[in-house]
Design goal:
The chain is an alpha+beta fold. It has a 4-stranded mixed β-sheet with strand order 3-5-6-4. It is built from 2 helices and 6 strands. The protein starts with 10 loop residues before the first strand and ends with a strand. The radius of gyration is 15 Å and the shape is globular. The N terminus is likely disordered.
Length: 126
Amino acid sequence: MRGLMLTVGAVLLVACGSNATHIAAISVYELPHEEQYEIRSVRVFDLDQLMGVEFEVLGAVEGVSCGRQAWVLGQNVVAVEQLKYYAWTMGANGLTNIQYTSREGYSDCTELVEAIGDAIWVSDSK
C-alpha cells in the first residue's frame, strides 16, 4: 500500500461523562512541518464531488475537540483536523460523510465536538 512514516505526537485522552469512550486527540501542530502539511492536505469531499470519481473507502475515523471557557468557536475545524490525522495514518487522501455531534458541560470542556467520517483514497484527486 502507500508508505507512511509516522511520528509520535502528543496524545491527549478525552473522556466525557462516566460512560464515555476515549478518543485520542493528536496535537498536530507538534508534529514535524512536513507531516503537518501532508495531514492538512487531506481533502474533504461531499458526496456530490465524488459522483463519477473512482475512490475507495479505507475505513471510519473519529475526531474530537474540547472547547474550554470562551474558546468554543472553530471546534468543528479542530475536530476535522483530528479526522484528517487519522485518515492520513490509514493512507487516505480524502474524507467524506462527516457528521458532528456537540455536547456541553462535559469534564472541563465548555463544548465537546465529536466528528466521524470515512477515510477515502481518491484515485484522481480533483
